[in-house]
TrEMBL record:
The keyword Iron applies. PROSITE patterns: FAD_FR. Binds 1 [2Fe-2S] cluster per subunit. This is Ferredoxin-NADP+ reductase subunit alpha. Transmembrane segments: none annotated. It holds the Pfam family NAD_binding_1. Its cofactor is [2Fe-2S] cluster. The lineage of its organism: Bacteria, Pseudomonadati, Thermodesulfobacteriota, Desulfovibrionia, Desulfovibrionales. The keyword Iron applies. Residues 1-97 form the FAD-binding FR-type domain. GO terms for biological process: pyrimidine nucleotide biosynthetic process. GO terms for molecular function: 2 iron, 2 sulfur cluster binding; flavin adenine dinucleotide binding; metal ion binding; oxidoreductase activity. It comes from Desulfovibrio psychrotolerans. InterPro entries: Cyt_c3_hydrogenase_gsu, Dihydroorotate_DH_Fe-S-bd, FAD-bd_FR_type, FNR_nucleotide-bd, OxRdtase_FAD/NAD-bd, PyrK_electron_transfer, Riboflavin_synthase-like_b-brl.
């Protein structure tokens, strides 16, 4: 049945899970950079999640999510065999794949899974792909094995030094850019402060930098305006004009502010869900 969860893997128990979902129509069309909007049940919010991988032959898509608030907590309650009520996609513009040169794909936290699909697209187009991935500690690092299966180089950093370089992904990036003049593009997917830091790091080197923005989305088709971001002084809608944009032109301060706009309500909704789960079910 469409939208059925065929496989669930708890990558970081209680925090991050991976779902392989039967969605043949989406799998057939999805490209790197696309996302889906899903609703867990009739009372559920619509939440956007990046397509981390596809298997066209078996008609499946893979999503990886961080349990952050009420809707991702509801998603986490589903198990193999359960179906997601609505799954809409593929949405957003696909990644612009350049050919020739070295592409550095930087991923932080859950963003590593989303970056994986983009890195795969660049690799399949014949580019030399270097992955730089980072997490707070070794046990929170995602998709290392998956990236190593096709990336000739995977550089790792952890904040606490429990694995790879002790420090930030931007330190590895700066070091690489100082030594390597073949880099034609840097792609960054992760928390907003990380993407902003990547853009600041690449700017002096003049290397084109793509960031994948996670602005608040509602309809996902350009009608509601919820996802508006400022890029190069112009208003753009992340759902239809993005989610990928030129990182040197994004107003990250405004994005951070808009993402935090509903924090008190989101906290209240999550606390209510934790206390009284019965009301959330259809
Ligand atoms: C294009 C896109 C792709 C994304 N891909 C992934 C992914 O692959 N994995 C992943 O873990 N997360 C991803 N996100 C973020 C994810 O959508 C939010 O974490 C999720 O909606 C949180 O919902 P919640 O109810 O659990 O948390 P809430 O408590 O409602 O919100 C927590 C935080 O999540 C963000 N958020 C809340 N609602 C939305 C919304 N409707 N749209 C966007 N952000 C929202 C806000 O920053 C908010 O402060 C993506 C966002 C976008 C826009
Ligand atoms: S989510 Fe409504 S316009 Fe983009």
């Amino acid at each position: 049945m469409a939208n059925t969860i065929l496989k669930k893997e708890r990558l970081i128990p209680g925090q991050t899970s991976k779902l392989v979902i039967h969605a043949p129509h989406i799998a057939a069309k999805a490209k790197p950079g696309n996302f889906v909007i899903l609703r867990v049940n009739e009372k559920g919010e619509r939440i956007p999640l990046t397509i981390a991988d596809t298997d066209k032959e078996h008609g499946t898509i893979t999503i990886v999510y961080l349990v952050l608030g009420k809707s991702t907590a509801l998603l986490e309650e589903l198990n193999e065999g359960d179906a997601i009520l609505d799954l809409c996609g593929p949405l957003g513009k696909a990644t612009h794949i350049r050919t020739g040169g070295t592409i550095i794909c930087v991923g932080g936290g859950t963003g590593i899974a989303a970056m994986h699909h983009i890195a795969k697209g660049h690799h399949e187009a014949g580019n030399h792909v270097v992955a730089i991935i980072g997490a707070r500690s070794k046990d929170l690092l995602l998709f290392e094995k998956e990236l190593k299966s096709f990336c000739p180089e995977v550089l790792i950093s952890t904040d606490d030094g429990s694995y790879g370089h002790k420090g930030l992904v931007t330190e590895l990036l700066k070091d690489r850019l100082e030594k390597d003049t073949t880099v034609t593009e840097v792609v960054a997917v992760g928390p907003v402060p990380m993407m902003a830091a990547v853009a600041r790091t690449t700017e002096p080197f003049g290397v084109y930098t793509t960031v994948s923005l996670n602005s608040i989305m509602v309809d996902g088709v350009g009608m509601c305006g919820a996802c508006r971001v400022t890029v190069g002084g112009e208003t753009r809608f992340a759902c239809v004009d993005g989610p990928e944009f030129d990182g040197h032109k994004v107003d990250f301060a405004e994005l951070r502010q808009r993402l935090a706009a509903f924090s008190p309500m989101e906290k209240q909704s999550y606390e209510h869900h934790c206390r009284c789960k019965c009301n959330d079910k259809k």
